[in-house]
Amino acid sequence: MTLDSKIIHYHVLKSKKNIKTGSKFETWGAVVDLNKKAFKHQGFQKSLRFQGTLETDGVGVSIIKQNTDTSRKSPKPNTEKKVDGNQTEHIEGLGQADLKSTEGKCVLIDPGRRDLMYCMKETSTVEEKQTLIFTKNNRSKCSRHFRYLRKRTQPFVVQKVEVILSRSESNSVNLKKFVQYIKTRALVKTLCTNIMETRQQSLKKYISLNSNLTF
């Protein structure tokens, strides 16, 4: 648990007044003796100092010392935002001459839609729409389709191995159940190794037969 000056002010001292800026040491001084050795400055040139934060587990206490002052609102630097001349301008900020130079090169994308991609060609009209829409549902359907297709095209031996492994608990903390899973996995490992070797041989044979293909 972390204790700071605000927690001490409201929950330990039970004060209902707003805590004043810069009064954290005054607040801490009301509950602890800041002159004790544990609160003294440490480190190179005494740069590590207590800045009003403690951590405790209810038994022991850790005094946090830092080499920078802490405040809830850090001052904002008064630096002007640099304008990058190479930054691409938004289409709404372009002039008429720049807009005319983009004719025939635009693809309009609507960022307000919940689609992964919604594009409209600039020659699209109300009567003849030219759009491309790819939604999250489309992606889910594609992923689900390929997942089911992969399962259907699996060899019967692979399907059988998956069924056997599914009967064992791989994440069990029970020693007997986990040992049983290891034995089952070792049993089916030989079958899986034979399948991989067969697939590699088939791939090598396919490559050798089609080695004259040009890409």
Q: Could you give the count of β-strands?
A: 6
Distance between the termini: 63 Å
Biggest β-sheet: strands ordered side by side in the sheet: 1-2-3
β content, as a range? 5-15%
Q: Please describe the biggest sheet, giving its number of strands, its sense, and whether it closes into a barrel.
A: 3 strands, antiparallel
Q: Give the ordered list of helices and strands.
A: EHHEEHEEEHHH
Radius of gyration: 34 Å
The overall average pLDDT, rounded, is 75
> What is the tally of helical segments?
6
Helicity range = 25-40%
User: How does the helix and strand content classify structurally?
Assistant: alpha+beta
Tell me the domain tally: 3
Region (Disordered): 65-88
Biased composition (Basic and acidic residues): 78-88
Summarize, please.
The chain is an alpha+beta fold. It contains six helices and six strands.
Describe the structure.
Residues 78-88 have a biased composition (Basic and acidic residues). Residues 65-88 are annotated as: Disordered. This protein has helices at 5-12, 24-29, 96-101, 136-152, 156-166, 175-209; strands at 2-4, 49-56, 61-66, 107-109, 117-121, 131-134. The protein contains 6 helices and 6 strands; from the N terminus they run βααββαβββααα. Strands 1-2-3 form a 3-stranded antiparallel sheet. It has a 3-stranded antiparallel sheet with strand order 4-5-6. Helix 5 packs antiparallel against helix 6. Mean pLDDT is 75; it is low at 210-215. The protein folds into 3 domains: 2-66, no CATH class; 93-153, no CATH class; 154-209. By secondary structure, it is of the alpha+beta class. Strand 4 (107-109) and strand 5 (117-121) form a beta hairpin.
